[in-house]
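Notes from the 1:1 (GR / supervisor)

We went over the backlog. Supervisor wanted to see one worked example end to end before approving the batch request, so GR pasted a single chain during the call. The sequence is below; no edits were made to it. Supervisor asked that the structure be written out right there so they could see what the output format looks like.
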Amino acid sequence: MARIGVVGVGGWGKNHLRVLSEIGHLSCFCDTDPKKVRLYERKYGVKGYTSLADMNDDQHLEGVTVCTPSVTHYEVASKALEKGLHVLVEKPMAPSSMECRKLVDLASKKGLFLTVGYIERFNPAVTELKKQIRTGKLGQPLLLEFHRENRWPERIIDTGIISDTSVHDIDTARWIFEEEPNVVFARAGRVFGKYEDFATIMLGFTDQKTAFIVSNWVTPKRIRQLSAVFTGAVATVDFVSKELRIDDDKGSRKAGKGVGEPLALELSSYTNSIENGTSHLVTAIDGLNTTRISEAAIQSSIKGVPIHLRLD
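Structure output shown during the call:
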């Protein structure tokens, strides 16, 4: 069993604690808040630390998950890689693509797994959509329209909606089309916070394939949806209910409701990769390129022009 430590047990990190405990891979954790350390030591029966260095020195780990604020991702992930640990870092991989590239190179040099928490790849509805695409029955993919909307989560104070939220759909679009976009155009603005809290992003791929991404932290209504237009059908994914609906010439049908918690599927894949030496569904290059696309979207919204891309 791969021994995993969790770094940062705040808003999302506490879910990593729960899931890793449930699947039998939680060995320890650390957080700067001593109250959280005491709370989760009692709850999960594992050792907690207030220092990453102390945890790394004291424990014999195979890997860590990094759930700290995004501005610290590079520092924490690089220290873990230098220690010889495999790393799953929550999105974004690092605040800048330059830091992402350094992490990619470090992981490659050390021969370690480095992956990023793009959890929608593990959503059963998306998994089923990929299966449907491979059968060829839907036809060729043409247009992806994403909506990811809800009121601003006040715990997120160090980044804007593009880097925190839109990246999920940027990555999913890359995965469904199985290629990188060559152009980005975006409009974004700010209502409540220090950074942009609503954005529309258009990604252009080869052969006229297009992804349109709408993200906002303004509306009180929570929406997590994808409408995918193919030459032979329209597929609708509800990321929350994990349902996939197909509409074609034969009518409308449900293609099954997915089973399984996406985070549990993601973390199980991560630990299986460590134990068996198999590749993870989200690679370090996926994390790098998604960050580069999000940076281009931010620049496009500032400059008011499309940004052309050449990605790895």
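Supervisor's comment: The radius of gyration is 19 Å.
Batch request approved.
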